[in-house]
């Protein structure tokens, strides 16, 4: 059994290879499909023919596409994503310093969404047509229709301006606090490691609104799927058997129904994460969150191509990683998985 | 004469479903009895209320179902007076049930051993290693080869027949007094059918357990049952000892059913299908729900109440003009 | 036809939410078509003497930092927002159906190639991919349309492929083939009309997402440039006033955006129930 799982996990990893290759090819095409001549752009307005040609050669743009692709691959394997023209720093470094801020926020949002959506969906499914069920349907319908940036601003207006419960939507920590020593880059974890509860509290307060904004967005598809899956499982033959065997309500609900219903929810989780990575960019802008989303927006406005493509690549790889993790989890939870394919 | 003490008494049971398109009168004044150790067959077309009735006895009816009248008395105690908690504890311990399509009736992502253990844990005082030993003992009791290995198998790794054996092991794990088998062999191949039915029969005999065999296969009922209940559209139309019923069916529907069952000694051309469909149970219904399809229909068949006659001792029929 | 109509009426009566979404849909369409004539003020005319006024009878949605009437701007923006998403959805519908039908009908290498393409697009977080494409193609409204079309392409291609695949052995396709029709004619005249119902459902389910996506791009400063009235950019411009309490600048265009998306999502759900009740969740 154990070695079977390992084999399946290995196969999943192999299946991810062409996807990663596809992502690399697409980002390469995006880098080369720039309008106009990048060399002219990099050389600046005062450059003459000769210096443009020099820059073209130094960027490797005078080579053929396959050669350029080969160079691109080599650079990638060294972790070289080029230099950001707006900051002058390597894109890899820029992304690496900002990534923890984005990840901390996204994961917090996902955590909140899961923590609310799954109980909500389960309650709705076990009490059809009750108040909870109607609430669930309302949340599901409204949730998918809310633009994230709108939700964010709305929450800021209510909780910061009107009620004064939240700190100003300006980044990860208000200026009176000093960031904890860098260990993981997650302020919530680093502050605990440093034993600084004051900073922990402050960081948490800053995070509640943006994380809730993300959570409201991610809630709908998760609750919808949980409810549907749970309804399906509760009317299944094996739950009927469990009831006929006199198993307790708790056992039926959590061991028999929930463990089966969670499988399609896991699949939805992958899709939700994809949405969240995109929504994260918008939320970072609303809350001036210093993550890779804000960095990418600045880069976009400044036509800093290397930075944007590095960002796209990083996000796509993160998404692939998460999908892999979900697949592996699926393999562990569902014994039937080995038979197909 | 000794005092009769039936295992299960179903008395004037009526049940309806409230649906968006109307109230479905799924069962009406259903009455019958089962003695200890007796095997009773419930036959009828699909939609006649066989399963609905067994779910009502088990107390696992759909939430939309409402029992509007009647009683179910099990072991001398009315089940409707029990609390939900008490009923839950009785299920699987005193009343058990097995279903058709055994492969979907078991939890697909839990090993059969664990599923068996769940029920043993719930209903016995066994703990720890004892549970496992009891589970293995039950698996060998239902003739599952190599129980140690099957114990760790998932339902999808076993055949339908094997899964049904597991279901039986789960059902008899606490030596219940009554076993309801709802189409237990439908969809299994013929050899497996016989093996499963013999398994059920042996288990019942060992424990002096009452058995309700729900089936649309009259031949199967004839072979294994002491008594047969014929249902049509939520009515019990005829109840009799098996031999009596086949020798002299009194209800026109029973006669038709017997006529529609293939029999080795009879020519296929003689088989007659039953004309018409089951009536729409949401509509206003005549006293006799078979009247629309009946060849012996008379105008007063529509009038209430539906007469229920005992034509000879133990042979009941619900018909104004029995054959 | 009248049976269809009666069925439609029945669905409406049974489901007031779908009815509500139909009303909202016609309202949106009316605003899109006649918005510029319905707006009480010129959406671009600034009036600094009346800047940042809260909602009043004269300005139901208030005025912005340049004294422009927010109500007129929200109404005028309807056309541009709908136009971008309708154009994008039409593009991905046409390209996606064509690719999907070919993949499902021919199978083999065609299927593999198109499958690989859709898988690759889906491997990206779609909004992030959209940002990358806009940056590569250039920051214009047309490119926002193309980009939105690209990221929605897989949804159409997948549905069309599944539908075509299930029908490639169907009787009417076989009959068309035997009566000497070429692949082109079969795909266009026999396959095409048959996959329309599920594709229509896909369109209405997808439309809301397309609107959200396009508005998101303009919110981060891509595509539409100020002072053009557009919901996403209006929310972005109003964002800085939220913290000082001038909520109406951002909330009204945001609410308009939300209603539009809600309308199409409800419509999609309703249409799906109408066409295929089994898919209901």
Describe the structure.
- Chain A has helices at 2-32, 38-43, 49-59, 65-77, 91-126, 131-145, 148-162, 187-193, 197-234, 237-244, 249-286, 292-301, 305-333.
- Chain A contains 13 helices and no strands.
- By secondary structure, chain B is α/β, with parallel strands linked by helices.
- Chain B has a domain at 226-323.
- Chain B has 10 helices and 12 strands.
- Chain B has helices spanning 50-58, 84-90, 112-123, 129-141, 147-150, 160-171, 190-207, 218-224, 242-247, 252-260; strands spanning 8-19, 22-34, 39-43, 65-74, 77-78, 95-98, 178-182, 210-215, 227-232, 235-241, 309-312, 315-317.
- In chain B, the strands form 2 sheets. Chain B has an 8-stranded mixed sheet with strand order 6-7-8-3-9-10-12-11, sandwiched between helices. Chain B has a 4-stranded antiparallel sheet with strand order 2-1-4-5, covered by helices on one side.
- In chain B, strand 9 and strand 10 form a beta hairpin.
- The longest helix of chain B has 18 residues, at 190-207.
- Chain C has 281 residues and is mainly α.
- Chain C has 10 helices and no strands.
- Chains in contact: A-B, A-C.
- The A-B interface holds A 1, 128, 236-238, 240-249, 251, 255-256, 259-260, 263, 333-336, 339 and B 58, 60, 63, 88-93, 96-97, 99, 101, 104-110, 118-119, 122-123, 152, 154, 156, 167, 170-171.
